[in-house]
Specification:
Blueprint lengths: L4 H11 L8 H4 L14 H17 L16 H15 L1 H11 L9 H9 L7 H13 L1 H5 L3 H27 L4 H23 L12 H4 L15 H9 L6 E12 L8 E5 L7 H6 L5 E5 L5 H4 L5 E4 L10 H5 E4 L1 H4 L2 E8 L9 H5 L11
Parallel strand pairs: 1-6
Antiparallel strand pairs: 1-2, 3-6, 4-5
Length: 373
């Protein structure tokens, strides 16, 4: 999932029957950082409950489906997770880890302040400390997992991913002040690296992986304007590594509602999605006149020939600014090269957050307000 590792691993424990949470709502409780509604919503609750029941019916822990996060925004939470793990299994190592991670203490809780201080303020970076901690943890692999069998290996694996996340996040927050392409690539490289770690960890010769993330992360960047900016993404790296063993699916919509903020860190609002712009793929799909459909983009026929031309494509993420939509949310793409299939839902309905603010309940005012048409 395009989600933080420690928050997701709590859900993983729940769906595999090893957590202390009583229900999916509790299991999702660690998803509090913006944008919390992306995970704390009614659809994900239903899916997590279903996944737990599915695993219980399998009867074998080895065949259970997991729930894992790929993202790297959880630096401080991951530090807490590594220390908590080491406190239980190796207190002496925990003491050394606290000393190393203490390097971040005087930068405060906002990791962007760390990046700014090290790049512009001349502060010494913590790179050596976080790499040393990751190396020490990996050296203790055999010793630490030998104590609790499969569960011990799972818990070590999670701690290792948190330690690796901290090392990559340290680089990411410094890279933020060196340009968008640099930080974007580090983030997607981390997500792809985590995906590979998961495949190696879970592979039994028949393992399948489903990756949920935004179109901009999963569609092949080489078929979009991202490539011209020097950016790559998970979708491109997966295709390059796995080729025909992978299958990329994109989603499009014409109109409806979406749960999004107006600015980063803002409150979740229920916003109306404006009808697609002229010349976009979304406008083309709306003209088909069907409420929903999917297209196999690998097919070579008259329909997919239209989708090999470069057109506008819309990207709505956790922020939606309809007043600057062309600039904020559209980019050039070749859809048939970007994905293997696309699912079009002509009218969509906003996710319902578990914690609904008044802005969400009210929804966006109509464009004709205060008049009625």
């Amino acid at each position: 999932m395009e989600a933080d590792w420690p928050d997701s691993f709590r859900v993983h424990r729940f769906v595999t029957g090893r957590g202390d949470d009583k229900n999916a709502n509790e299991a999702l409780s660690d998803f509090r950082r913006f944008p919390g509604w992306m995970w704390r919503n009614t659809v994900v609750v239903e899916f997590v409950e279903w996944l737990r029941e599915w695993n219980l019916r399998r009867g074998s822990e080895k065949d259970a489906a997991g729930f894992y996060g790929l993202d790297l925004y959880s630096m401080h939470t991951s530090i807490e997770a590594v220390l908590s793990y080491l406190d239980k299994v190796d207190p002496a190592s925990a003491k050394r880890a606290r000393h190393r991670y203490g390097c971040f203490d005087h930068f405060g809780e906002d990791p962007q302040q760390y990046g700014l201080a090290t790049v512009a303020g001349g502060a010494e970076p913590c790179e050596e400390e976080v790499v040393s901690q990751l190396v020490e943890l990996r050296r203790k692999y055999a010793e630490l997992i030998s104590r609790d069998g499969h569960i011990g290996e799972e818990e070590f694996f999670s701690a290792e991913q948190n330690a690796r996340l901290i090392a990559n996040a340290e680089r990411y927050y410094r890279a933020m002040f060196h340009g968008r392409a640099n930080s974007w690539n580090l983030r997607d490289e981390h997500m792809f690296e985590t995906l590979n770690q998961l495949i190696r960890h879970r592979d039994s010769g028949k393992a399948k992986v489903v990756v949920w993330a935004h179109n901009s992360h999963l569609g092949d960047a080489r078929a979009t304007a991202m490539s011209a900016r020097g950016e790559f993404n998970v979708g491109q790296l997966v295709r390059e590594r796995f080729g025909g063993e992978s299958f990329g699916i994109g989603f499009t919509t014409n109109t409806g509602t979406v749960t999004a903020a107006s600015d980063w860190g803002g409150v979740a609002e229920r916003k109306r999605v404006r009808p697609a712009l002229k010349g976009s793929y979304e406008e083309l799909f709306h003209a088909v006149g069907l409420r929903r459909f999917w297209i196999d983009l690998r097919a070579r026929n008259e329909a997919t020939a239209l989708l090999r031309d470069e057109r506008l494509e819309r990207a709505i993420g956790v922020i939606y600014r309809p007043e600057t939509e062309r600039f904020s949310h559209y980019f050039e793409a070749r859809l048939s090269d970007q994905f293997d299939a696309v699912i079009h839902l002509d009218e969509t309905r906003a996710l319902e957050p578990l914690e609904r603010a008044s802005e969400w309940d009210t929804g966006e005012l109509p464009e004709t307000y205060p008049f009625r048409v």
